[in-house]
Amino acid sequence: GHNGGGYFIYGLGVNLFNPNTKKKKKRGISKIKDIYASAWDLFVLYEDGDLYGMGQNNYGGLGIGNTAVQYKLELLLKDVKMISTCTGGYHVDYHTTLALKNDGSLWGTGRNSVGQLGNNTTTSLTSWTAIEVTLEDVGDAIEEVYVVGTEITSTYLRTAMGKIYSTGYNGYGQLGLGHTTQ
Q1: What burial letters (b/e) apply to 10-25, b meaning 16+ CB within 10 Å?
Q2: How big is the CA angle at 151 (ends 148 and 154), to the nearest 5 degrees?
Q3: Facing residues of 64 across strands?
Q4: What is the pLDDT of residue 154?
Q5: pLDDT tens for residues 32-88?
Q6: CA separation for the pair 13, 28 (Å, rounded)
Q7: What is the pTM of this model?
Q8: What is the dihedral of CA 100, 106, 107, 111, to 10 degrees?
Q9: What are residue 112's phi and psi, to 5 degrees?
Q10: Which of 25, 76, 34, 33 is nearest to 54 (CA)?
Q11: How far apart are CA 70 and CA 167, in angstroms?
């Protein structure tokens, strides 16, 4: 596909029509559990919980401590169950990424213009930061996390008890709160 910026093929600024044949082996081999792609970043989650990523890294969406382009897969976070990141649309370069770890903790990085990271601020992060989540029901654990949108995203958490919690952009009431306040 399009690789004009050279983000995905180890710095080569060429478009590809065949799969890249370069392979990078991961030490302590673990199978790939899932692949997550946004418009400019790629995340690979292995079964052992290691999360790798590469790409444009706008707003620190890779969580490597800066906003520099990453041309090869880098270890981002360990013990990860799943992640969610913005995937496309009109403003595809505004990245927010959340990771749910196997211990139930929630971690975030990237753009946070409307509080979509759920950390009670609107300050963007360039490094993975633990997000304190207080659920109304004692003992209710986060099962899944979803980042939805492009430039101004909303975040949803689904709990083990089947409840949905939301934060972030709410200009059209998409958080389900009965108002349009972020």
Answers
A1: eeeeeeeeeeeeeeee
A2: 30
A3: 127
A4: 86
A5: 999 988 778 899 999 999 999 999 998 899 999 999 999 999 999 999 999 998 765
A6: 31
A7: 0.81
A8: 100
A9: -145, 35
A10: 76
A11: 29
